[in-house]
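Priority: low. Protein: THAP-type domain-containing protein. Input follows.
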Amino acid sequence: MPSCCVPLCGNKSRLFRLPTGVSNRARREMWENLIGRDDLNDNSRICELHFSEQQFEAKRADGRKLLRPNAVPDVLNKNVGACVLMDGCTPLTTARENEIFELESCSNNENVNVGCFPEVDPLLDQTNIVEESQTLIENLRNALRKALRERNKYKKALENCVNNLQGTLNEDQIQFIQTGTARDQLWSEDTMTKALKLYLACGAKGYEEIRRQKLPYPSIRTIQQRLQGITLKHK
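Result:
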């Protein structure tokens, strides 16, 4: 059965797991420094005697006694086996994970080398988190506005191109330009008529050159498949 990892404690009841995971690395190092051991692993446990009441959640309806997410073991005396809260020390109730405070000697316990934390405003971290979140949200909003402006600009340019082409090309030809492929393209009778006129006027080589220039006309094979039944429009 596991027991408390604090030197000279060995308590086997009301044990808590040490912080684990990459996001808790800073808190894990803080706990290990306070406990005074560098050989702990993910199976190590610490008992409730090493936490002041400020480190626990408020009284729960289910009666469970759980540590706060930012709790630290603040009832430690590395030189003596007794588990007592040092007089004159203010327990740390909240701390940023990237801040590890230097250990200082308590003014009222000069004979004992113990760790004392400076008093921290419990609302300080929450205020910083809110401010950082608001800044991030505002940056995302600005990026979204910029993306929308760019989209509207390109959309307007495309609409202008389509309007300019509508007097010269048919709808199916404009669709070909937009999609960039003739696959599953249904060419209109008017477009097929214009393509056939070009084919008869330019010949096979001339017509293929027109298509190589990316002009929106069907292939010679498509023209041949549609030759039967097509009626030329004389203008």
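The two ends are 98 Å apart (CA to CA). The CA atoms of residues 58 and 65 lie 8 Å apart.
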